[in-house]
Amino acid sequence: MNPDAQVHESVLPVVMLLTSLVPGLVIFFLREDQVRLRTTLNMAGAVAKVALVAVLVPLVVAGQVQRAAFPWLPGVELVLTADTFSLFFAALSSLLWLVTTVYAIGYLEGAPHRSRFFGFFSLCVTATVGIALAGNLLTFLFFYEMLTLVTYPLVAHRGTRAALDGARTYLAYTLGGGVLVLLGVVWLTVLVGPVEFTAGGAAAVAELAAERPGTATAIGLVLLAGLGVKAAIFPLHRWLPVAMVAPAPVSALLHAVAVVKAGVYGIVRVVHDVFGLRVFADLGLLHVLAVAAGVTIVYGSLRALTQDDLKKRLAYSTVSQLSYVTLGAALLSPVATAGALTHIFHQGIMKITLFFCAGLFAEVLGLSKVSQLAGVARRMPLTAIAFTVAAFGMIGLPPLAGFVSKWPLALGGLDAGEPWVLAVLLTSTLLNAAYFLPVIHTLWVRPPEEGARWVTEPHRVRSIEAPASLLVPALITAALTLACGVFAGWDYSPWQIARIIAEGSYP
Amino acid sequence: MSALLLPALVLGPLAAGAVAAVVPRERGRVRAAVGLTTAALTALACAVVVGGVATAPGHEVRVALAGWEPPLGIVLRADAASAALLVLTTLVGVAVSVTVAVRDDAGGGPAFWPLWLGLWAALHGVYVTQDLFNAYVLLELVTVGAVSLVALGKGRSAGPALRYLFVAVVGSLLFLLAIALVYAEAGTLDMSAAAGRVAPGPLLTAALALTLVGMGAKMALFPLHSWLPVAHPAAPAAVSAVLSALVVKAALVVLWRFWVALAPAAGGAAHVLAVASGVAGSAAVLWGGLMALRQRRLKRIVAYSTVTQVGYLALVLPLMAPGGEAARAAWSGGLLLVVAHGLAKAAMFLAAGVLTAAYGSDHLEDLRGAMRHRPWVVAALGVAGVSLAGLPPTLGFAAKWQLLAAGVESGQWWWVAALLAGGLLTVGYTAVVLRAVSAPADAGEQAPEPPPAAVPTVQAAVPLALAVAAVVLSVLAGGLAGLVADTAPRGLA
Amino acid sequence: MTRLELLLALGCAVLVVGLVAHLLARDLVRRVVALNVASAGVMIVLLVLATRGTEPDPVAQALVLTGIVIMAAITGLALALVRRVEAPEDEEAP
């Protein structure tokens, strides 16, 4: 993103892909009972990826961009670039992949078809990191479509009729969006060549917008509509609540790490690094995007209020929270941009915590409805604490992560001269409180239901309330939620990195 | 070296076919051995020729048979387009040969080998011939081989075979009339020589139209497609693969070569015909896709998918028309699509063959549980479907990208819409198949999953190998596309 | 209309008649015969073209010969298939 950055040709971006691609492909060929080998491969890949990110972050922040390019078709290249923004997203996905892998290994213990599951699981992260590292729109599209394809078997994993129906809806929506993205990318590439992502927008695209504003607007709209499906912008969000039939680790992946994030990441890349914010504003598209995001924020929160199914409530909450990112990306203000980028990271860790906890309630006690959770905190206090921390974060209470990203968004709204943003954020925060506080209240305060199975049945005596492989990831991400808020001033905190990235968008 | 091998590409398999025919029917193993040896040698020869084309100046290897130059002699010429088709034919040919060698049931019995080797020779001939009448003769040879192979199918396959024969011969007669018209105009049968000697006029227009209709019938272009969904599923599994992946392409290549050589001279009439081809192609994409969605038998679904893909290939004519960048993109995209479709379709039909052998039926209802018992075969179906739909990371994506670029470049939005819609339909029917074979685990009212019969491991692995080839080749698509684009034809005037 | 054009038109007419008969006929043997008529039309066109110059054109005549041989082969294959189609069910199995 940094225009003064030195570009190094390097294989590191490719290695980052291989750390999950190779284990994924090997895992497909393992027998079901080769648990140890499969676990080792999974963990080795996940740890290696996190380590690579840790190595690259200081280099990239210091201005050394790592780039790898491959000729593909005549005149178009596949480009992988590790710049600040791509590493930011890659760091999020590889970190959360690590904890989700631990969680998934515990969650699926003894379940059938684990080789298939973990194979696609690894491919899913490969595609996500590919999206993060994509250096141009073609490469982005390549991995974006691949992500759709490899998550489909994960959503359908249980093989029940409901799972297959949900997966079909998911596929129909995301591939429909994919077709639009494909059209937009081909269109733009034919007109201006294969433009690489450039902080502040590509010069060739700016020229196009100046010469043929109608065409540029059409391309921008097609791209936004396509990306809006995965970013779950109203009215393209319907697949997201339906895809809740997936196993909990997959929901975590969909909601926090991979699919929806690919959508908003794509929107930010297109708006900031292809068109450039000012060009996008001049075309009148920025306002369209901001309004769509504002509507989605309120709509998602309202729908979440009425859901009794915990995962559904969380799903609508995702719809709403994602549009915070879109909204921030659509405001002409550096503070808002930084807030939006930070929210990509913070929403990820908070939402994954919530899904981990939902999975814990479902796995350990068999509870999936909000109304069934009365008094559960007595039986599972640690899980309840993790849930509470993340939910408070979502509402935006200081000193948690959610506050660090929401506050700049509100300031940015004022800064950009769009005071209505403040109203949207306030409404949404109230609604957030309205749908999360009752859950917390139910968990901690209400007495257990008479005759609930988990009360009458004496549970096996264990040292802790749930299997460690499920509980520990939730606690880790809950702790991160706290840490990202408290240590937001640290040099390498998501907030600080996001500020560096955001500066690039305002040359 | 590679020039010397060009005649061998045609004569070698032909001679081997004759040898296989002499071997008594009871000695099926010997026939298979002859077939496999030929396949290996052919693959080697093809590799040399393709290498020769890639390195030759102008990407062209040429040989005048027995030293006789036109107009008296016959010239064989392998260019970038031939190279793409040779690559495809080699991969599919080896896969089919291996499949039938491990289980001769898949090919319909010992009569398979002579017919298939003869067909293989004729296909190679079609790819490298420069002579119009030669093309006609070789196409008839392809037809005879293909029809006879269809007739090897179990059950009542003679009817579909006869129907196929009728359509193919009518197509050939129309093409022969077109050749006569060109010969009357140009006084030569050599395609590139004729290109310079024809003038715009009703004769040339008629020749182009006759070729479009004639080859359209042979390759099942909508609305002349109705024989294909009957004939292809009736054939033995390995034969269906050959028919959809290769035989359809023979007519296509002849159409493209004829068009590229002669259409630019025809002026406005060629534009009208190109649009007609585009309309037929778009209709094929939509109709084939919708029909595929409605089928309940796997082989019928795959056959209708071929109707769709032929529609894509027909779109190449209007996409090439504007010339320049669009023609380069459309031409290379078209050839990439030929390869991508061939690999995917062969993988699908061979996979269907494995499932049919294992479950005794290709009705989707009977294939429940195949996902559990035959995961690699289902994976082959899935990956092949992804490539057909033109999604990454497959060769089909590269092809579709080029075609879309051609359409956008020249502002031909209708064809772009057809390309995009076709992709969605393809995903649709692939998903129907995958859903059917995965069988809902909670469907209590259904009978328990039928246990599959044993199938040789090699046969079950071949479809996946082809599907993986479609993924691996996507990485190499640039080389192939570059080679092809360098020799792209000019557009219509 | 010159004699040449008349003959060309005749060839085309025979082709069309043959094709129409082929498409309309239901009996399979009739359809095969109609196909042969159609091919005769194309052969007439080629033969007429061979007479255009002052000397007969050997190339066109060679084409006709080859065409006739091919058509004969195809007719053979078609008739064999017709027999199998029209054979009673039990005879069909090879």
UniProtKB/TrEMBL annotation, chain A:
Primary localization class, coarse: membrane
Residue ranges of coiled coil: none
Organism domain of life: Bacteria
UniProt KW keywords: Cell membrane, Membrane, Transmembrane, Transmembrane helix
Claim: NAD is one of the keywords in the record: no
NADH:quinone oxidoreductase/Mrp antiporter transmembrane domain location: 134-430
Pfam entry (one): Proton_antipo_M
Membrane-traversing stretches: 12-30, 42-65, 85-105, 117-135, 170-195, 215-236, 280-302, 314-336, 348-368, 380-400, 420-445, 466-490
One GO CC term, this protein: plasma membrane
InterPro entries linked to this entry: CPA3_Na-H_Antiporter_D (IPR050586), ND/Mrp_TM (IPR001750)
Subcellular location: Cell membrane; Membrane
Topology of the protein relative to the lipid bilayer: Multi-pass membrane protein
PANTHER family, sorted: NA(+)_H(+) ANTIPORTER SUBUNIT D1, NADH DEHYDROGENASE
Family membership noted in the UniProt record: Belongs to the CPA3 antiporters (TC 2.A.63) subunit D family.
Name the UniProt record assigns to this protein: Monovalent cation/H+ antiporter subunit D family protein
Lineage: Bacteria, Bacillati, Actinomycetota, Actinomycetes, Micrococcales
From TrEMBL, chain B:
Keyword annotations: Cell membrane, Membrane, Signal, Transmembrane, Transmembrane helix
Main localization (coarse): membrane
Alphabetical list of Pfam families matching this protein: Proton_antipo_M (PF00361)
Localization per record: Cell membrane; Membrane
Residues annotated as signal peptide: 1-20
Domain of life: Bacteria
Transmembrane segments: 80-102, 109-127, 133-152, 164-183, 203-222, 234-259, 265-289, 301-321, 333-355, 376-401, 413-437, 458-485
InterPro entries xrefs: CPA3_Na-H_Antiporter_D, NADH_UbQ_OxRdtase, ND/Mrp_TM
GO biological process per UniProt: ATP synthesis coupled electron transport
Signal as UniProt keyword: yes
Alphabetized GO MF terms: NADH dehydrogenase (ubiquinone) activity
Domain NADH:quinone oxidoreductase/Mrp antiporter transmembrane, chain residue ranges per copy: 130-425
Membrane topology annotation: Multi-pass membrane protein
One Gene Ontology CC term in the entry: plasma membrane
Keyword hit for Kinase: no
Family membership noted in the UniProt record: Belongs to the CPA3 antiporters (TC 2.A.63) subunit D family.
Protein's name in the database: Sodium:proton antiporter
Organism of origin: Xylanimonas oleitrophica
Automatic annotation (TrEMBL), chain C:
InterPro entries: NUOK/Mnh_C1-like
Name of the protein described by the UniProt record: Multisubunit sodium/proton antiporter MrpC subunit
UniProt entry keywords in alphabetical sequence: Membrane, Transmembrane, Transmembrane helix
Gene3D superfamilies tied to this protein: 1.10.287.3510
Record-annotated membrane-spanning stretches: 6-25, 32-50, 62-82
Any GO CC annotation of this UniProt entry: membrane
Subcellular location: Membrane
Keyword Transport: no
Membrane topology listed for this record: Multi-pass membrane protein
